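Cross-posted from the bioinformatics board.
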Amino acid sequence: MTETITRVFWSWNPVAVSGLALWIAGILWMMPGGVVTAAKTRIPGLLFTVAGLVLVLSSFGGAIGELSEELMFWVFAIAALLCGTLMITSRNPVYAALWFALATLSTCGLFMLQSAPFLAAATVIVYAGAVIVTFLFVIMLAQQSGAAGYDQTAGGTLPATLASFLLLGAVFYLVNTTAPEVRRVAPLADSLRLTASAENAVAAGEAAGGGASLQAVPVEEILAQEQRDSEQPAVQPNLLSRATESHPVGSMKGLGRSLFGDYLFAVELAGTILLIACIGAIAVAPRREEGAI
Amino acid sequence: MEIPTMIDASNGLTSIPPQDLRTLVVGAALFAIGTIGFLTRRNLILLILCAELMLHGVSLSLVTFGKLQNNNEGQAFTIFLLTIAACEAGLALALVLSLYRSARSLDIRLWTELRETDVPVAPLEPAAPAAGSSYGDIPRLTPAGTQPAHVPRRPAAKK
């Protein structure tokens, strides 16, 4: 047990550990009512946080890709984490909401880099367009007199920060150890035409005129083939969600096939949940005859 | 019927590209700072915002996992997550408004009835500080003339 802990500890990247420590120092410095309560300025905490973020992210570096992509990643990643840190340490809830909006926009930039343009647009519309406005509305409704006393202090800063960063360190360790052995799956070939069963495959082949370029393949056959190839159970049976060569991950057609093919019932359920939540919110919210807010 | 193989390397195992690895790291870090904010801050609305920050971290990880597996499921899950987050924000804000109406405050420490009996209660501040004092120097008009006599407002007419 002790040996394992020592091994884990020493196998850690010292750059990552020192970066995490700097970041903790920055959070503790800036947190209202935290360890450094007498601090008048937040600038040192800000510098600690930026330095820690740079160290942490650079310790997971590796081969540098295309320069523009690399630059975009650094800008968006540091902006997201810095805005998140400033959000949780802000003494004014209105500023916290605005920092959250910035963190959301930076996350959308990362979505874009991870080839999810539709998701980036949807997140901007839903969060920056609707959620933030609602939050700001409620803050201004409930705190008309300005800054409140409970925003100037925070409880249990040190144990909460240490616990969260312990969790984060564990996740980093796991990511680092499992990163070399991830099973990667290639996109489906365009010549495949998926059908639900073998009879349908024959019918589809006849309909296509036999020697057509499309190859009608029943789903079970692909799964069985994959299982033979990989000596592992098939990754997942939802073949409509798999990216194809002409429609890579994140393309509108691929995403639509996944949502309205494999997950059609889930989409209907999500709509129902939205309706129920809407009814619930109207029922819970204060009514006019019960008095003003 | 020959089916093209869909597994990349000889054993199907490769290492994560550094871009995806670092995006996973950013997702985990967003989740961690959301946790810190949720555990430490006392404003009810800030708590919900911190939960949304944690959801952002999860979305980022899901999108990256989907990209790693050449699969649209990660993004489909994130769209569901977005839906649930919208529901959560609406319901939570309605609940917060109800709580605010009964306590006239957004302080989470006012709501400690459901705690374990042996957990100590954190102390509350005696009173809110003077309004506007923490926003710095706000220009104010000098008072002019005498203060008019206070006239009690008439009760509103019954409908």
